[in-house]
Structure formats: C-alpha cells, structure tokens
C-alpha cells in the first residue's frame, strides 16, 4: 500500500511540475535595422517612411523551447504587435491577418530565424469602385519590409493587393521601407505560471497519508 501511495505522489507531482513548466509565456522581441531603401508615393508629408525608421515589435506565445521549428497560427499567439513608421499591425487590430509565421529556435531556446508576413487589409466600396488599402510587415533572415499600398483595381468587382505590381491602372501604388539586413531577436519569460496552491496541498496530503500508513 505504501509503495502505491508513494507512486501516486510521484505521478501527481510530476504532472504538476510538467504543467507548470509548459505554461510559461515568453515574449520574443525584434529590433530591426534602419531602412536602407525608402519609397513614398501615397502618404502625406510627415506620415511617410524615412531612413531613420525601422521595424520593431514582439510576439507572446507559450515557451517554444529548444530546437523548435514550425508555422505559428493565429491560435498560437497570446498577442503580437509590429510597427514601422506609419504602419502598425497587432493582434488587437480586427483586420490583422497572419499570412505565415515560421519560427525556429536553437539548442538554447533562442530565436534562430523568423520568416513572417503580417498584413491588415481594408476595402471600402463607393459606387462599385473598390479602393483597397493594405498594410504589411514582413521579416526574413535576410531582410525586413514595411509597406502601405493602395490595391490594384482589377475590375468593378475585385481589387488585388500584390506587392510585385507597381503603378499604372492595374498595378499598386505604395509606400515602402526596407532594410536589407535583418535585425536582432531577444526573449524574456513574462509569465511563469505558479503551481496552484490546491495542487500543492493535494500533494502534501498524499505525502502525509503515506507517513500515516507507514506508522501503522
């Protein structure tokens, strides 16, 4: 009986500690380099990209751990927010979408690389002529780009936001800031979830029960 009780205590405490370890939230932060290439076509003076702007931001998820690789979905995030000059895209924006968000970590749990594209797209309709505005932020191991663009008018029923098409009746007009050298990622634990008091009390009770059984 004693052996069974002690085994139950061990299993219970292992589950408690395992749950606690995997509940930690980590904030992964990005500090980009200043833009080396800037294009301004739409935004008014004072609201455009400049060579002193850079992409900064962070995302909060459960600790990814070491040697991780995967494509994070919207459900993976507690929150995210990235900005550069006039563009900000965050999880609090109802129009924000994640095109892809590939992350890998090294053997120590630090960010090894990120390949991501976030965008916020808004289309308004006036007399069947669509005017779409799309803001996007992308980060890769080799570059980082922020963009504000007026989407292409394809016909009276559709618009298309395609960053590879520029100008003209069927292309996009855009503002853009780009750095050809990617920035630096750092991380910090922001919520190491404590083991619930009730769980500890349950474990203590089992230990006490084991002691009583042993005396008998």
What does the secondary structure layout of this molecule look like, with pairings?
Elements: H1 2-22, E1 25-31, E2 37-39, E3 56-62, E4 69-71, E5 77-84, E6 87-90, E7 96-105, E8 111-126, E9 129-139, E10 144-150, E11 152-153, E12 159-160, E13 173-179, E14 184-191, H2 197-215
Antiparallel strand pairs: 1-3, 1-14, 2-13, 3-5, 4-7, 5-6, 7-8, 8-9, 9-10, 10-13, 11-12
Helix pairs in contact: 1-2
Explain what you see:
The protein is of the alpha+beta class. It has two domains: 1-23 and 193-216; 25-192, no CATH class. It contains two helices and 14 strands; from the N terminus they run αββββββββββββββα. The protein has helices at residues 2-22, 197-215; strands at residues 25-31, 37-39, 56-62, 69-71, 77-84, 87-90, 96-105, 111-126, 129-139, 144-150, 152-153, 159-160, 173-179, 184-191. Helix 1 packs antiparallel against helix 2 (197-215). The longest helix has 21 residues, at 2-22. The chain is globular, with a radius of gyration of 25 Å. It starts with a helix and ends with a helix. The model is unreliable at 5-9, 15-21, 125-129 and 163-170 (pLDDT under 50).
């Amino acid at each position: 009986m004693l052996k069974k009780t002690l085994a139950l205590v061990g299993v219970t405490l292992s589950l408690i500690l395992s749950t606690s370890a995997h509940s930690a939230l980590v904030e992964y932060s990005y500090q980009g380099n200043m833009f080396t290439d800037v294009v301004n076509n739409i935004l008014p003076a004072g609201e455009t990209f400049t060579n002193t702007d850079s992409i900064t931001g962070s995302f909060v998820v459960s600790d990814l751990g070491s040697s991780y690789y995967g494509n994070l979905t919207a459900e993976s995030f507690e929150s995210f927010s990235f900005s550069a000059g006039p563009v900000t895209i965050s999880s609090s924006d109802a129009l924000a979408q994640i095109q892809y968000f590939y992350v890998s970590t090294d053997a120590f749990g630090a960010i090894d690389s990120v390949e991501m594209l976030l965008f916020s797209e808004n289309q308004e309709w006036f007399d069947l002529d669509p005017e779409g505005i799309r803001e996007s932020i992308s980060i890769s191991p080799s570059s980082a780009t922020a963009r504000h663009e007026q989407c292409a008018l394809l016909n009276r029923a559709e618009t298309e936001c395609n960053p590879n098409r520029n100008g003209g009746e069927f292309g996009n007009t855009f503002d853009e800031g780009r750095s050809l050298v990617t920035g630096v990622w750092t991380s910090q634990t922001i919520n190491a979830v404590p083991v619930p008091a009730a769980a500890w009390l349950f474990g203590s009770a089992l230990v006490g029960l084991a002691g009583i059984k042993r005396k008998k």
